[in-house]
Amino acid sequence: STTSSSAFQPVLEQIAADIAGTPGRGRPADYIPALASADPRRFGMAVAELDGTVYGVGDWRHPFSAQSITKAFTLALVLSREGEELWEHVGREPSGNPFNSLVQLEYENGIPRNPFINAGALVVTDRLHSLTGDAVGTLREFLRAESGNPDLTFDEAVAASESAHGDRNAALAHFMASYGNITNPVPVLLDQYFRQCSIEASCADLALAAGFLARHGVRADGSNLLTRSQAKQVNAVMLTCGTYDAAGDFAYRVGLPGKSGVGGGIVAIVPGHCTLCVWSPGLDERGNSVAGVAALDRFTTLTGLSVF
Ligand code: GLN
Q1: Residues contacting residue 255 through CB under 8 Å, at least 6 positions apart
Q2: Ligand 1: which of 31, 100, 172 to mutate, most ligand atoms within 8 Å of CB?
Q3: According to the model, what pLDDT value does residue 3 have?
Q4: Would you tell me how many other CB atoms lie within 10 Å of the CB of residue 53?
Q5: Interaxial angle between packed helices 118-132 and 70-82, expressed in degrees from 0 to 180 and rounded to the nearest 10
Q6: Which of 122, 168, 279, 281 has its CA 20 to 30 A from that of 11?
Q7: Which atom of ligand 1 lies at the shortest distance from residue 262's CA?
Q8: Could you give all domains of the chain from N- to C-terminal order, each with its CATH number?
């Protein structure tokens, strides 16, 4: 990675200036103390080009809790291994409900609506764990390889805190297990899921790690994780489901596949061009970073880059 200037550097600086009043709006996630203590005025943004050159502004090198951003990577890792079989266990329709909702599971027989709400992400992690014997180890190695950051790892304190406040996720997992849609023992799955969510990474790390989604499935070393068609599928699910019950508004404002996390990060993909990651801990009511969405909105407005 490099910090030499390109066409993107002035754009990032323009965005930071344009949205200067926005970081600090919204509230950090408060369901665990480790996230609640984040400073909502923090803001960082990185753009990675297809060749791995990365540009950034603000706190773009500062590690934060990746949380649900990791769900885009676990989805890709499972799709690469089992292909279409996955869709017998999880749907691919937007839910219109909050990310941790239980309500649709009963009348859809334990098959979650999509891989990005918590229920669907639990199914994906369960399958990755069965396919590899080590879901979170597989995820961490992949993120390290793609980001080039050998130190990227979990925050065990965040994982422990998630576990201590994990009743809702435990309920989701047990409920789906009752329909036979979870293969590992629920405590094993929950341990994997909480550690997955606790991954610490910077905007630079995550923009680089998502590069394969802009390169039509091709990894940093030139090998294929996904087919071109599968990369399109992951991007499509990110567009329609990646920001939960705000996905329609996100598509309207930003016009890119994106995946948010309650740590305040959002990864977005411009297929064939670049990847973006923005971070600011203040969230809106739907769990998406207020300044993050504003910055991505400015990016597509200033550059004209979008999937539309
Ligand atoms: N760890 C969080 C949870 O499971 C992740 C949610 C999110 O980032 N939207 O509730």
Answers
A1: 300, 306, 307, 308
A2: 100
A3: 44
A4: 16
A5: 50
A6: 281
A7: 8
A8: 8-303 (3.40.710.10)
End-to-end C-alpha distance for the chain, whole angstroms: 29
Q: Which of 48, 44, 54 is nearest to 2 (CA)?
A: 54
Q: Is the pLDDT of residue 243 over 70?
A: yes
Select from 99, 122, 162, 199 the residue to mutate for testing ligand 1; criterion: most ligand atoms less than 8 Å from CB: 99
C-beta separation of 211 from 221 below 8 A: no
Which residues, at least 6 apart from 279, have a Cβ–Cβ distance to it below 8 Å? 42, 43, 44, 45, 59, 60, 62, 64, 202, 203, 263, 264, 265, 266, 289, 292
Q: What is the pTM of this model?
A: 0.97
Q: What is the pLDDT of residue 2?
A: 43
* pLDDT on residue 106: 86
Q: Which amino acid is at 100?
A: N
Residue 97 banded pLDDT, cuts 50, 70, 90: confident
Written as six digits, the tokens of 10 are 């002035």
pLDDT tops 50 at residue 4: no
Query: How far, in Å, CA of 264 to CA of 278, rounded?
Result: 8
pLDDT digits (tens, 9 = 90+) for 37-65: 999 999 999 999 999 999 999 999 999 99
The CA-based diameter of the chain, rounded to the nearest angstrom, is 54
